[in-house]
Specification:
With about 200 residues, the protein is mostly helical. The chain has helices at about 1-15, 20-35, 40-45, 50-65, 70-75, 80-85, 95-100, 110-125, 130-145, 160-180. It has one domain.
């Protein structure tokens, strides 16, 4: 856990140094997120995939969040940016599958609306773990766009989603790390790249 926290904090610190460069902040914060949650199983493809790893990590964090820091971030501080992110088709995977000509995604709009309804149900039932899963599904698409060269640095196109996403991650990552540090005896998994002499 100490190695995870140390690495994650280093990337959070780097993200804080970039000023208004939301692209760089988001990428550094995503690295911090990977440092916090990814274990050797998920990186070897043994786990149920990234979504499964996310959900397990979120469920553990929410269960251990005695001060409800995550709940307050989602429901109070970032409800607007999260709502905007969830209403943005440009961070919805089926939208891109359709536009890239992948068969079976002609119904992307129906899927988008169904996702919005499911998200609204999670919000109404104050299911923080499920809401985090929805949010990180969208953040993951943005991560893919940036990492795989599907966006131009500092582009005028779709800037709001990058700024909102960096702000959401920038707030949540220190909260996640605080919860991990408050619970050092929990099994946070084995880092895939340990320090080796």
């Amino acid at each position: 856990m100490g190695l995870r926290v140390h690495r994650s904090i280093s990337w959070i610190g780097r993200a804080e140094q970039v000023g208004d460069d939301h692209d760089a902040a988001f990428l550094f914060l995503w690295i911090a997120f990977n440092a916090a949650y990814a274990d050797e199983g998920s990186l070897q493809g043994i786990a149920t995939g990234e979504r499964g790893a996310f959900e397990g990590f979120f469920a553990k964090l929410v269960a251990l969040d005695a001060d409800q820091q995550i709940y307050n971030a989602i429901w109070k501080q970032f409800s607007g940016p999260i709502r905007n992110l969830m209403q943005n088709r440009y961070v919805f995977n089926p939208f891109w599958q359709f536009h890239n000509g992948v068969d079976g995604f002609d119904d992307w709009e129906e899927r988008f609306n169904a996702s919005a309804r499911s998200f609204a149900q999670a919000v109404q039932s104050t299911d923080t773990t499920r809401v985090l899963s929805f949010v990180f599904d969208r953040l993951y698409i943005l991560r893919n766009q940036l990492i795989h060269g599907g966006a131009t640095w500092n582009s005028a196109v779709n800037r709001a989603q990058v700024g909102d996403s960096a702000a959401i991650l920038g707030f949540l990552m220190p909260v996640f790390i605080d919860i991990m540090m408050d619970n050092p005896d929990e099994d946070w998994g084995q880092p895939f790249y340990p320090v080796v002499d």
